[in-house]
Amino acid sequence: MASNGLDIVNAAAAYDQGYTGRGITMGVCDQPINFSHTDFSGKKGTSMLVTAQFTYGGYMDTNLEPPGVYDWSVLNHGTHVAGIAAASRDGAGMHGVAFDADVAGTTFGQYFGANGSAWEDEGYNPFAPYYSKEDVKVINNSWGRYEHLDAFGSLAEFRDYCNASGDINNYMCSIKNIVPMDKLLIFAAGNSGCIDPQLFGAAVLLDKSVSRNLISVASLDDATMLSRKGGSISGAQLMNYRCCLATYGEDNTIAAPGRNILSSNANFAADGQRDIVMSGTSMATPFVAGGAALVQQAFPYLGGKQIGDVLLSTANPNVSVANGYVVLLQENIYPFEDYNYAINILYTDPTVISKTPEQQKADIEAYIATQDPESDEAKYLSILLDYGYPVNAYYQVPMQALVGQGVLDVGKAVGGPGALNARRLTSNDISNTYTVSGVSPNQALYRVDTKGYDSVWSNDIKEVRVGLLAEDSTEADLRERYKFYKTNWLDNSVQGSREVMESYIAEFNEGAENSGLLGLHVGLLKEGKGRLSLTGANTYQGASVAAGGTLSIDGSVAGDAYSVEKGIIAGRGTINGTLYNRNMAVAGDATGTGNLRMGSLVSSGVLESNMTKNGNTKFVVTGNANIEGSTVKLLNALPGESGDIVTSASITGNLKNTSEPAAVSGMLGSTGITSGNTVTVTAVASNNLSTTDETINETFDAMTTIDTALVGAPRREEMRPLFNLNAAAAKDALASISSSAAAQSLSTVQRSQLTEHLISSRLAEALAQKSVNVKIPTASLTGDGAMDGIDVPMKLYLPADNDFWFKTAKSWGDLKGGAYYNSTAFALGWDKEYGKRWRLGTFVAHDSTSFADTGAHNDIKDTRFGIYGGYRSGPHTGYIYLDYGWLKNDLERSIPYLGLTPKADYNSRILELGGEYKYDLNAKQQTPWHFSPYVNMQLSRLWQDGYTEHGAGIFGQRVSNATNTYFAGSIGIECKRYLPKGSYGLRLGIKHAFAGADPRLTFGYVGDNASSYEMKNEQDKTHFVMSIGGEAEFAPGWWLAGDAMLQKGSHDKDVMCALTLRRVW
């Protein structure tokens, strides 16, 4: 089950939008936290950043346990608090508000005693571990002190007391030092039953610099005693009876459930109870911290201060007290040595302006009667009444005195701010650059930098202005607040603390008057990249300014709007004032739909419209439109399309692009014309590619030809994405549309030396000389007929009767233009000696080649059948081969930015003739090394079938059938060393292609049957060739050979490695 109170804070609405705290780490500064509890399992980013010490003694006891050794039955507060904020939703027990968030824990003290005491060394800073944690923007602080301003005689006395306390000063320094890091500190208001927050919840009274990064949290009554209907929250008592309220801190206070809250039990292992119930503002505070984590997830560009802005401005102010009064049990320590007990009764019914002590007592008794007689609440209140403790009655109590800005509404908070609050701004935010209702007074600008994120602010955003606490204040909430102060302090101080209120009001008003913000309207200034969409009915009166990224007005704004610097105003909503377009304005929302309406238009920048299936988007101006110096553009259009971009009651000024098109995209431009009260924009084809690449420019022309030919045809829509790509993307797309691996694949197949290499290396092995012993006969005088002789070692050519061989090869290479390939081949052959000089054979080979470039891939299956012959006579050796092959091509391309994948399967056939002549300079010498100059040639004819690609629509290529004749020759020298049972050698040479190295293919496009173009391939014609190889007999009749070859041109290279196994008998 959920932790009590999640329904009151509208958490489910945030969860429904996908916000759970995932990816967020929040800070919790409290007692040590027992993260071994199953409520925190799986939270890998969760840990304690400091390690406190515990003692079974009391305050300042030095008999400390080792660091990290705690009695969890005593130190159960921090774990309970962390659970409310972030306990996992695992289907067992409760879960926290931000149940997917992590927790980074610190402790407010260094030492904790068994009696609940806590203390620290001088200078201890509980927030220091967060300095390096940029991702931790929110820190929960369910702790504080007992001092309250309302218990002092004056504001000065309160400050003097705090300044004299080293402990208070130490913590105030910690708070002040972390505020510049833009962390949000969320403090518990306290549990003394006072009408104002405890010291740190009211830290703004000591240092105003912390006011914008600190929130105080009051506690509501038991959630079962509250009702949330139709957006309003009511309860008989509404507030927890021991809760401190919001007086003096109304602008920085928010309320949340805090009574009888179920959460994680730190001592679960010992007592077997997973969750326990606790009460207090300590429990209310983590509801707000958890909500802040969800806001951080929704708007990761916001800092701590602005997360606080969102929480405060979206808090639900629609609260009511059914009884008409709230009863609090006050137990204030200062300024006495003992507890200063009293009962506070606050009448929220505006018709009640006074009651007698007897009536007050009767109301308190009536409230006690509604409580469980055995409850602490009923007992304590009854005792105080019976013993005559003071009853302090307050009248004309507004809801803001109880709950501040309202009750936490998480579901609304993840929709962005509900107000732009000038009271949370400074004089640095004042500007007179922009207008309010057409004039240029000062206004306060709320700045937000979206830092590249796109987000939506869906709430209706109002403005909160700086005003005075006075009976005639311009601000309704301050008039209401002043009435409460005047009734209960200035006119009838219930505790003799009129001086406190007088000094507080005087200082509040002095600050307002000196801020420069008094009475100013508030506007919005968007900075940074990213799109911020305003979808609500926004009533703030200041300007809406886009200085960076896009500010999309998809709901409405009450005032003027500006695009300046690098900012863009866009949207499908309404600008009730004037749009001042100094950079760019776009009619339409993020999806490119809707008209942008406005009171009037003053534009010297770019006005953009988006073409949709229902026509183009428009700027609809109810008043005058001044377009002097503007440029109009039509996006998502095709050449020739047009539409009205501005309609107005009257139009003045001249456009820049009436005749010369303004670039819209890489392939599209726009012109505009004014006629009466309408500006019309027309799209035209325009080469804005800024390239001298002939192929790309030719393809641009081809695409415009196709577009023209398809006018009126449904398939023309396929051209729209292409014409609207930016220049860089359009160049890439056009290059891919016109390119293909077909021509380069054809060239790669024909210039391959695989067959030549197979035959050459095979015959080099077969025709090689071998070391043998030759017996030379000698004369015999015995006459017995016996043959005597001597053995002479010699190198001779010894043919085998039968010779089967198997060869496998692996090759790869880089080609001109960034293409590359790799292939795997095998061949099986047989040859036999014919006569003394010839060796003839046949072979079959299969090669699988994978060819690829930046935008295409071709899998080629090449199967060959051939015959060959080798010749040897003295120093003369040579070979000749002839083969015929069948090639199957599986071509696939990609066209970037259009998401298209053209494919085609087609066949080819090849006839290849090759040969070589080699002269052994050392043939007549019995020397290990032989040097042989050689010359060879390679001639092939390839027939390629035509094909039409599929999968690319009108951009598919229609490639005609083609033939290509390739002729190349090589010259070089071979160095070879013969061994007793094998050989090895090296070849160096030059190869030059005389014809066919750059085949041309004729092609057209599916979308245009009339035009044709030429697909070219240009590879290096001259290559340096080097190969090494060797063979050895590893068993009788069994030979193993290996060789490798490198073919290197100016822009390409090929590498081949081969292995041969042959059986000789």
What does this structure look like?
With 1065 residues, the protein is of the alpha/beta class. The chain folds into 5 domains: 6-403, Rossmann fold; 416-471 and 520-685; 476-515; 694-738, no CATH class; 750-771 and 794-1064, Lipocalin (Beta Barrel). Helix content is 18%, strand content 39%. The chain has a 21-stranded mixed β-sheet that branches. Strands 44-45-46-47-48-49-50-53-54-57-58-59 form a 12-stranded antiparallel barrel. A hairpin with a 4-residue loop joins strand 5 and strand 6. The radius of gyration is 44 Å and the shape is elongated. The two termini are 86 Å apart. The model has no long low-confidence stretch (mean pLDDT 92).
Keywords for this entry:
Rossmann fold, 39% strand, 21-stranded mixed β-sheet, 12-stranded antiparallel beta barrel, alpha/beta, 1065 residues, 5 domains
Provide the fold topology.
Elements: H1 11-16, E1 25-30, E2 47-48, E3 53-55, H2 77-86, E4 102-107, E5 111-113, E6 118-119, E7 138-141, H3 155-163, H4 166-178, E8 184-188, E9 214-220, E10 226-229, E11 232-235, E12 253-257, E13 261-264, H5 268-271, E14 275-278, H6 281-298, H7 304-314, E15 319-321, E16 325-332, E17 340-347, H8 357-369, H9 376-386, E18 391-394, H10 399-403, H11 410-413, E19 419-421, E20 430-431, E21 443-449, E22 455-457, E23 462-464, H12 476-490, H13 498-514, E24 522-527, E25 531-534, E26 544-553, E27 556-557, E28 561-571, E29 574-581, E30 584-587, E31 596-603, E32 606-612, E33 615-616, E34 619-621, E35 624-626, E36 631-635, E37 642-647, E38 650-652, E39 662-663, E40 668-675, E41 678-685, H14 694-709, H15 720-723, H16 727-738, H17 742-751, H18 754-766, E42 770-778, E43 788-796, E44 803-814, E45 820-834, E46 838-853, E47 856-873, E48 876-893, E49 903-919, E50 929-944, E51 947-948, E52 957-959, E53 962-979, E54 982-995, E55 1000-1005, E56 1008-1016, E57 1022-1035, E58 1038-1048, E59 1053-1064
Parallel strand pairs: 1-4, 1-7, 2-4, 3-5, 7-8, 8-9, 9-12, 11-15, 17-18, 19-23, 21-24, 22-25, 24-26, 25-26, 26-28, 27-29, 28-29, 28-30, 29-31, 30-32, 31-34, 31-35, 32-36, 34-37, 35-38
Antiparallel strand pairs: 5-6, 10-11, 13-14, 16-17, 20-21, 32-33, 37-41, 39-40, 40-41, 42-43, 44-45, 44-59, 45-46, 46-47, 47-48, 48-49, 49-50, 50-53, 51-52, 52-55, 53-54, 54-57, 55-56, 57-58, 58-59
